[in-house]
Structures are given as C-alpha cells and as structure tokens.
Write a structure and sequence with these properties.
By secondary structure, the chain is of the alpha+beta class. The chain is built from 9 helices and 9 strands. 36% of the residues are buried.
Length: 318
C-alpha cells in the first residue's frame, strides 16, 4: 500500500499568475501547485512521508548540507512568487498531513492572512546589520618599577580593555540611534538576534541585526538615510541588503502556530537559523531576515577581549 505524501507549505498569495510556478521545484525537488480557498492561493508541494515524517525530518535537520539546500529551495520559491505579486512567506518546515489539512488552515486563518497581505502590499523587507568598526586601541604606555615589569603589562592590558569596552558601548549606543532613525522611515521594524562571528562571517562583533518593512516609494529615502548614518557614526560599519520578501513581517496572529506541527514532524526554527548565514552569503539574504522572523530587542553581547602583543591579529571583516 502506498503511503500518502505530506503537504509542504511555501507561501500565501492573493493569486498566482499563470505560469508563475512553471519550472519551480520545492525542497524535495517536487513540482508546485496552488490550493485556492476563500479567494486566497496557498502554494504547496507534496513531499514523501518516508523522508519527512517526524523521525526522518529530524535526521535531515541534523544534516547541514541537506538543510542548507532545502532552505535555499524554500527561499527560491518565495522569492519568485514575490517578484510576481503580493506574497506572504510561510515558515520553513510547515507541513500538513494532506491537502485537506492545508486547506483547513487557509480557511481558518483567512481573515488574518488577508490582513497580513494588506500590511505587506507594495512593500519589501530591507536588512541592516551594524558591526563594530575601526582598529583596536593601542596599548597604553604605562610606566612601572623596573623590578616589576609584569605590573606594567597588566596595567596596559587593563587600560586597553577599558578603552575597548568604552568604544564598544559608544558603538552600541550609535547602533540604537541608527535603528531608531531607520525604523522611523519604515512601516514596521524588527530586531533579530545578533549573530556570532561564525554565523556572520565577520571578525567584528555585530551590534544590530535589523529588518525594516519599507514602502516601495520610500526605498530611495531609506537607502540614502542608511548611507548617511554610516557616514555619521564612524565607529560603526553598516551593511544594507534587500529588497527581500517580508519574512520578518509575515506574522498572522497568535491563533496560528509559527511553525505548525499537525503532521507530527517537529519544528525547524533553530536549525534553519543555523544555515541562514550561508544563504545570505550566496543570495544576499538580509537582516537575519530570513525565514526565522524573531522579534524584540536584540540581546547585548560582550565586548571583545583586547589582544595581547603575543596574539596574532584576526582578519579584518570585509
């Protein structure tokens, strides 16, 4: 007896143009189709239960090579839909047991989906990341008794650490000001968790990981403001990316789970975020803005430790 496939959800749209899905495939290289209910189109694909039930999916999520390719495929579908019309992305690894369950989701969430589609109409997401910029402070020239050379070294280290902490605090304050200024030009704004150096691919500490929903008529003003803010705050290096589908602003209210689990497949939020930096590097995917739509204040990170004279300098970020 053949085991029925599961239904993988990609995005919701007002409508999908004829031919928009031609040649597109999903995370399992499956063809895509639409389910239309109450005037909304849900883009889905059928994936084999044997490879996407709870146990199989958890194994796949631990395979970073597979996960990276799947996240890219999920994003590719959404990006193509967003180019052709108003699109609301759905979270990676949103699965239902069958099309009936997916259609029930569309019927039940219809009013909230329409409201969300209206919020993102004629708008796109832009990402801004801020990094600590500039060279580390030089060690202070502190005198010490000739018979106590270690004291001078410790005092220099302390002075360097204090100077670096002050520089970091000033840069964090600048990042807060930058975020406030950019949020004022956007319809909505969100802050995502700060990425580690391994995730960002940058040696400098990240200070801001912001996402901004910007009206298409204000894109030029937004870009000019980001450029001017980068010039004004010399201690901060800004990175602007976009435009992207509105991943960070696709919330449809608390009644629908962020990552639904009706198929018993578990969630993929953390695993998806782990490979997002690689997707950014290739696709320009911005603002931690990708499929993981975390919101709220970004956590404060520790200032970097100053290097001792014996430590080799890390490579500077691009």
């Amino acid at each position: 007896m053949t085991t029925p496939d599961l239904t993988w959800l990609y995005a919701v749209a007002r409508d999908v143009e004829d031919g928009a899905l031609d040649g597109l495939t999903g995370v399992a290289d499956e063809p895509l189709r639409t389910l239309t209910v109450t005037g909304l189109a849900l883009v889905v694909g059928s994936v084999p239960r044997s490879g996407f039930d709870e146990r199989a999916l958890q194994r796949r999520l631990a395979d970073l090579q597979w996960l990276e390719a799947a996240v890219r495929a999920h994003h590719r579908v959404i990006a193509e839909l967003a180019r052709t019309g108003r699109t609301l992305p759905l979270r990676f690894a949103t699965l239902y047991r069958d099309d009936r369950g997916a259609a029930a989701f569309l019927r039940g969430a219809g009013p909230r989906l329409r409201a969300a589609l209206e919020r993102v109409a004629d708008r796109a997401e832009w990402g801004v990341k801020a990094y600590l910029a500039g060279a580390a402070p030089a060690p202070a020239d502190i005198a010490a008794p000739a018979d106590r050379p270690g004291t001078a070294y410790l005092l220099r280290r302390r002075a360097q650490r204090d100077a670096l902490a002050q520089r970091f605090d000033e840069a964090m304050a600048a990042a807060r000001e930058i975020h406030a200024a950019l949020a004022a030009l956007a319809d909505r704004a969100a802050e995502h968790p700060l990425q580690s150096a391994e995730a960002s691919g940058r040696a400098e500490p990240m200070l801001l990981n912001g996402a901004y929903l910007v009206d298409r008529e204000r894109v030029a003003d937004f870009g000019a403001a980001a450029t001017e803010l980068g010039r004004r705050f010399s201690g901060v290096r800004l990175e602007l990316t976009g435009p992207w589908p509105p991943y960070s602003f696709a919330d449809i209210g608390p009644e629908v789970p962020e990552t639904v689990d009706p198929a018993g497949t578990g969630t993929a939020e953390t695993a998806e975020a782990d490979v997002e930096a690689d997707v950014e590097a290739e696709a320009g995917f911005g603002a931690d803005a990708g499929p993981d739509a975390a919101t709220g204040a970004a956590p404060r990170i520790k200032p970097p430790e100053p290097r001792s004279p014996e430590q080799p300098a890390a490579a500077e970020g691009g």
